[in-house]
Amino acid sequence: MSSPPSIPGALATARWRALGSGVVLRLTNPAALDPARAAVERELDAIDLACSRFRPDSELTRVNDCAGRHVHASPLLLEALEVALRAAVLTDGDVDPTVGMALQLAGYDRDWQLLPAPIGEPGPLPTVTASLRAGWRTVTLNRETSSVHIPAGVRLDLGATAKAWAADRAAAAAARATGCGVLVSLGGDIATSGPAPAGGWRIRVTDDHRSDPSAPGQTVSILSGGLATSSTAVRRWSHEHHTMHHVIDPATGAPVAHTWRTISVAAAGCTEANIAATAAFVRAAGAPEWLARLGLPARLIDWEGNVTAVAAWPAEGPAQARPERAETAVEYGREPSRRFGEALAR
Questions:
Q1: Are 289 and 279 within 8 A, CB to CB?
Q2: Beta-carbon neighbour count of residue 153 at 10 Å?
Q3: Domain total in the chain
Q4: Could you give the CA distance from residue 189 to residue 233 in angstroms, rounded to a whole number?
Q5: pTM of this structure
Q6: What is the distance between the alpha carbons of residues 14 and 159, in angstroms, rounded to a whole number?
Q7: Residue 317 φ/ψ region, left for φ over 0, alpha for ψ in the -120 to 50 degree band, beta for the rest
Q8: How far apart are CA 234 and CA 219, in angstroms?
């Protein structure tokens, strides 16, 4: 996953945990760290209460428990659901918020850090069949009545969009509160807002955002936008004597198989970067061509460690003495990439 390495100079950093993930806040004005953190915490607390699948008091839990009925939803949850449904449209259903039941059947029924450790090396994944595969088109949102309806038997999960969306919102809130440049990393999903430091925001791209700088990976820098990394090698657990992971193929209701180990995508925002990374796992061998067609810079690693760079993602030098700038992560003038991001904003 993506993680910001230690940076010398005038940058300020704070670290804590929220939404079941590690949070890193970095900003260009050290004197503004306290109001920046307060702004980020407010955003994350509100999104957790609206969108968590694991909190019994969350709005999303109430919607899932009341499947088959129209349920009142706050403007924040409605926006989160709109983002999730637009992700389904953009990816032709490869990112689908109605995979909640499939995730439960795969054993992902609590914060993943509380799940049993994987039992061994990745192997063939079992078939997981949800009792009802209704799909994202069956979700109904009504802004006029502030309500949401899902069919009986369906459970929503916003894991493919809400965390990255939270990072985007938190970075923007911190920048508004301080007037300086901000980077927010939420479990390795990275969003930026405001002016970047000289040389850009340095980001270490690895399988696991918790790794130290010596872990295999690549250091890049971005001046704006977002960068998301997802890995099926990290978020794994044991369920019914099988090693499972969190990326579900909506077409089968099972964790994706025969796909990449780790995928990083840079985009105009963290939300679209994470949507593209998730869809790329589902598209497997077709992912590089799809990402290139969108003009989204990406780095894909297979299980043998081979790296595929897409859409001018910077090449990796043998020693990587200096970070390479992912220029296309901040040059979103290309129409395919612009349309991808603007579709989420509508």
A1: no
A2: 13
A3: 1
A4: 16
A5: 0.82
A6: 24
A7: beta
A8: 19
Side chain identity at residue 238, one-letter code = S
What is the number of residues in the chain? 346
**Residue burial 102-122, b: 16+ Cβ < 10 Å; e: rest:** bbbbbbbeeebeebeebeeee
256, 122 in Cβ contact below 8 A?
no
Cβ atoms of 273 and 295 within 8 Å: the answer is: no
Q: pLDDT tens digits, the chain, 346 residues: what are they? A: 565 554 445 799 999 999 888 999 999 999 999 999 999 999 999 999 999 988 999 999 999 999 999 999 999 999 999 999 999 999 999 999 988 776 666 555 445 454 444 555 544 445 444 444 558 999 999 999 999 999 998 999 898 899 999 999 999 999 999 999 999 999 889 999 999 999 999 998 987 666 666 677 899 999 999 999 988 776 544 444 455 556 777 777 677 777 888 999 999 999 999 999 999 989 999 999 999 999 999 999 998 999 999 998 998 865 444 455 544 333 333 344 454 555 454 4
CA distance linking residue 211 with residue 229, whole number of Å: 13
- DSSP secondary structure code for residue 295 in this structure: T
- Give the residue numbers spanning the domain of 116: 2-345
- Two structure tokens written together for 107: 């054993």
- Paired tokens of 25: 């806040």
- Give the whole-angstrom CA distance, residue 251 versus residue 268: 28
Structural contact between residues 95 and 160, judged by C-beta atoms closer than 8 angstroms: yes
CATH of the domain at 235: 3.10.520.10
Report the half-sphere exposure of 49 (CA within 13 A, side-chain side): 9
**DSSP characters for 185-235?**
EETTEEEEESPPPTT-EEEEE-S-TTS-TTSS-EEEEESSSEEEEEETTTS
- Residue 259: both structure tokens together: 């796909």
